[in-house]
Amino acid sequence: MVQRQERQGMDFIAVDWGSTRFRAWSLDSDGQVRDSTESDTGLKAVTDGAFEAVLMAACGDWMASDPALPILMSGMVGSRAGWKEAPYCPCPADMADISAAAIGFDVAGHPAAILPGATCDDARGHADVMRGEEVQIFGAAELLGLTDAAICIPGTHAKWARLAGGRLTGFETHMTGEIFALLRSQSLVGALAEGDADDPQAFLDGVDHGMAVPVPHAAFAARADALQGRLPATSVSAFLSGVLIGGELAHRPDADETILLATGVLADRYAAALDHLGTAVRKVDAKEATRAGQVRAAAALWPGRVGA
Amino acid sequence: MVQRQERQGMDFIAVDWGSTRFRAWSLDSDGQVRDSTESDTGLKAVTDGAFEAVLMAACGDWMASDPALPILMSGMVGSRAGWKEAPYCPCPADMADISAAAIGFDVAGHPAAILPGATCDDARGHADVMRGEEVQIFGAAELLGLTDAAICIPGTHAKWARLAGGRLTGFETHMTGEIFALLRSQSLVGALAEGDADDPQAFLDGVDHGMAVPVPHAAFAARADALQGRLPATSVSAFLSGVLIGGELAHRPDADETILLATGVLADRYAAALDHLGTAVRKVDAKEATRAGQVRAAAALWPGRVGA
Fold this sequence. Notes:
Chains A, B: This is 2-dehydro-3-deoxygalactonokinase. Chains A, B: GO terms for molecular function: 2-dehydro-3-deoxygalactonokinase activity. The structure is a homodimer. Chain A is of the alpha/beta class. The first copy, chain A, has ten helices and 14 strands. The radius of gyration of chain A is 21 Å and the shape is globular. Residues 1-10 of chain A have low confidence and may be disordered.
């Protein structure tokens, strides 16, 4: 249980509510964490639209401590399948534009808002979309004191974003994590793989191959090389991971440095691939970036309540 | 049942034995079809290595009509998971090289052979492999009277091959059909799709996008465009098909004409995409190409028995 004294000075509740995870923090006016909670009650686990009940169960104690405590939410909770749809904010956009497009409503007397995500168009008129990552991007820039940056957020749907003059000018989504998982677990290529151990050389070979030729061709080399005895079964997974990440890197923004919002094995792999290409990397913890971005948005939405 | 008189002059049995399908023909010395059979007893349906029993059940009557009738097999039956492993024949190779690398053995007193498939290396030292398609490629060239050609065989693992001076000089596999099926049925992009109706404009938009940017990024546009109301749910499948085929076309051999071994919707889609790029197309029926290739291989293996 949360100690009552921990709630003193807490100025808003930040919620990062995605498809599979629910994360919430009670933050003070300086953006410091007073308390936090995390669970697997992502959108997929919320039945019959019971979003308010899930939120109250997780954050009810914090809400009870202050009847006017604001609640800021970002992520898929603002999608069509979420609590309330917050239409994507078009790029270029800064944090003020994103905040201004939030959907405001009332939750048990508390002022609440859902941030809208962001959208952009490419040269051929195709759309791209993100929900939640825009908060991380602005948060990372805030933490690093940057207004211009190339930012990569690895994951199921990896994002590569460009920040210029403090504005999110455009981004690309790559279905890297989702396609890797499908190929690894269900394809004829994955059928030859044994385990998912790291193999730095096989991984970088995969990166080079995925950058040089189309991913659906490059991925097949894992099978052909394995059949021809050139790639151990235990290295197929690392090679395949390299191929998918190589596909991203072939299309990455032109920048000397990449800001990487990741931790763990995935962060190490992206850092190794970028280093292989001679690109400098700075890693930022994605959760810290989320909180920093939420504080900026909350300060814009409730200026008297939350310090900028 | 086959009439006895139909077996007169029949000079060998051609078998195309893949992962999911078993196809066999009794062919006369001119390569004309006297009889045929087809079933779903591909490799996946053969248990406990009972390949001979499956073959006898399908072709036993033909074999009984002539105790010396040769049996020629191609496809995955020669893989490690097949009847007998026939190691891949390295490119460049002509039909004589492929035939010379066949694995010969005896089936109930009949001379039998399994063709070896083909392998090649790319500029980065990665292998590629095919089993069965090499027979179709040489067969198509025979049917069209060509010694130089760019040949495309769509499918689960689509092949793009180059024939020069009558030799298979190299080829690339693209996991087009397999990745399309995975994305269509199990990904967050496919989740927005309704049906698989054709939409020529959405398909060609997908081709352009898949040629211009990496496939794992291009595929996500199906989701983003659908969410933004630019792509009807009923056109997501056609767009996605275009993206995958566009990935192949970005990497296709440099040639004015493409020989397309396909029929039906897939042939129409590839033809539309190639026409969109200003490339001439000649379609060849894949089964006819298989038979023509088998006749060439059989003539090389059993010259006294089968006419060239």
